[in-house]
Amino acid sequence: MRKTRGLGPFRGFVTAALAGLCVVLAPLGGGCQSDTASYCASRCDCQGCSERETEDCTDDVEDAERLAEHDGCAAEYSNFITCYVDEGTCTNGAFITSSCAAAADALRGCSNRSAAFIKTACQEERAKRESCGLNGGGASPCTGGDECAAYCALSASCDDLSNPQPDTPYVNCVVACSNSGSSSGGGP
């Protein structure tokens, strides 16, 4: 939580006024959830985080926000968080944000240390496979065909991952990725 500086005796009044505004706006759909809280809520609502995991997420993302601001990358940070919350989808216990790859890359390019909380597609694939009771995924580095196959896995069902069948969207996606130069078995 950021400290309110320079308000002296008005600090308590400002805090109370903002809290009251949130109470008034919440029933009207104008909630006061921060981008950080939205990010962690989206991820944890899908993946079923424990209270501790939710707190860790919030700490990591708040630290990333401060680093991004310090490094002059607040816009890139905000663009990624907004994309993640607005465009991500929950599929089989994995929060998939394949459409946010460019925003993630822009934040990494501006401030790699502020982007440390962002998982690669391969790390996300590993987490999804684990949530399905499977092994695999997690290629490092996550580039080319490995990244492509990871996105295929993220959009596949657990059944598709555990028992890939010829000529299904998942298998066809992975086959198409093989032209990208896959170096490890992220797919079937």
UniProtKB/TrEMBL annotation:
At the top level, the lineage of the source is: Bacteria
Is Signal found in the keyword set?
A: yes
Q: Which UniProt keywords apply?
A: Signal
Q: Where is the signal peptide, in residue numbers?
A: 1-19
In Swiss-Prot or TrEMBL terms, this protein is called Uncharacterized protein
Question: Which organism is this protein's natural source?
Answer: Polyangium jinanense
